[in-house]
Every structure is written in structure tokens, then in C-alpha cells.
Amino acid sequence: MSQLRLIRVTPKYLKYPEGSCLFQMGNTKVVCTTSISEDLPEHAKAANKGWLTAEYSMLPRATTTRSPRGRIASGGRTKEISRLIGRSLRAVMDLSVIPEIGLVIDCDVIQADGGTRTAAINGGFIAAVQALRHWRKENPSMAWPVRDYVTAVSVGLLDGKAFLDLDYEHDVKADVDLNVVMTGSGDYVEIQGNAEHKPFSQSDLNNLLRVARQGIRKILTVQKKVLGELR
């Protein structure tokens, strides 16, 4: 099933952050914000470049049962997804041209129904571009660091068939689960995947990546409609 769930984007969703949006894929809803700071980590200062980092979390009742806040924040899954979002966005940024600023991407899942990490990447990128545009209005001499779009989608294998953008019901049944991150120009940033029940073939992998590319192109169209030219 190579159909994306319905995507809705509400840009500038919050009043105070330099960039923000509500990104919805089906029933998954993620509030993404970007804050700009001049407080940089030491490794970025030493390299004379800016920095981008991300923090991902879920509200206690984003799922069918409540999860304690402390357990969510300290969990390994939360940290792993935070790092994925940061890596994905840094892949399309030339941070050496903005050595004076750092970007903090916060992605908070308010409702989870599968694909939360991919929705966070898609919305986080939108919020980051908004924030950089806001900063450049106040600093018109700023060089533009965004080199390309970045987009992500989940795919899975169920009963030998490739499914795109799985909701939770299908995700837990999938024999293979893949998260694919790509640039707007079609290069891979990251592929995360595993076999849940039995190993999968090269042919299965090729088919999953083909379906993922189809979904990526559609999500990219949505991002471009919101953001337009990257400048």
C-alpha cells in the first residue's frame, strides 16, 4: 500500500519560537519548534561553526495509556530519536557559514499513531528554516546555511507487501520496519531498519526503498508548498 496518510502542516503554530509548526501525518501530531541561541557548545566554537541539536519527547498521554514524564525523558528511545533528528537536519546545513548561532529543535509528540520520528524530522526542518529566515531579517548580512530539503518516511513489510507510512496498528504487525531519511535532491541521509520476525531479502529491501522514495517525493511537495525556495 503505497499511500501516505493525510498530511497537514500548520506553520508558525506557536507565538514565541523563532520557528514552529504543527506537523500531522494521519493521527500522529508533532509540535516542532526551533530556538536560536548564541550559546554554542565548546566543540562548535573550537571548529568556528554554528551548531544544530534536537530534543524529542512525547506527552504522557500521547499514546493509549499514560507514560510517566520522567520515564519518557530518560528513555533510550527518546535519546536515539533526538540524535536522529539532529543528524538529519545537520546533513543539509552548512554550519560553517553561521559560526555565531546555534539552533535547538524541539519536537514534542502530542499524539502518537506511528511514524513519530519521521514526522518530527519533516516538521523540524520546516521550523528550522522559519527560524533562520526570522534571524536573517534581523541580521541581513547572515549567510544562508540551508543547502537542501530533508524529508523522512517509514515503510514496512507485511505479508510480503511493502506499506508506506505505517500507523501504529500496522507497525506492530510488520515483519520489517524501515525509517528512511533523504535529501530533496534524492540522496540518502539515513536508513534505519530491522527484521522483526525473519530476515528479509535484497529484493524486499529494494522494494521498500522504492516505496519510500515515492512517499518522500510527496512529503517534499508538501514541505515546498509551505516553505518555497530555500533562501
Please characterize this protein's 3D structure:
The chain has 231 residues and is an alpha+beta fold. The protein has helices at 42-47, 69-74, 76-90, 116-138, 168-171, 202-227; strands at 7-11, 19-25, 28-37, 51-58, 102-111, 150-158, 161-164, 176-183, 188-195. The chain has six helices and nine strands; from the N terminus they run E-E-E-H-E-H-H-E-H-E-E-H-E-E-H. The chain has a five-stranded mixed sheet. The longest helix is centred in the last third of the chain and has 26 residues, at 202-227. The chain is globular and about 55 Å long.
Q: Level of helix content?
A: 25-40%
Major β-sheet annotation: 5 strands, mixed
Give the overall form: globular
Number of distinct beta strands = 9
| Tally of helical segments | 6
CATH architectural label:
2-Layer Sandwich
Whole-number radius of gyration?
Answer: 18 Å
CATH topology annotation: Ribosomal Protein S5, domain 2
Question: Uncertain regions: pLDDT < 50 for 5+ in a row?
Answer: none
Strand order of the largest sheet: 1-2-3-5-4
- Name the CATH class: Alpha Beta
End-to-end gap? 35 Å
Name the CATH superfamily assignment: GHMP Kinase, N-terminal domain
Q: What is the count of distinct domains?
A: 1
Question: Overall pLDDT, averaged?
Answer: 94
Helix-strand category:
alpha+beta
Strand content: 25-35%
Order of helices and strands: EEEHEHHEHEEHEEH
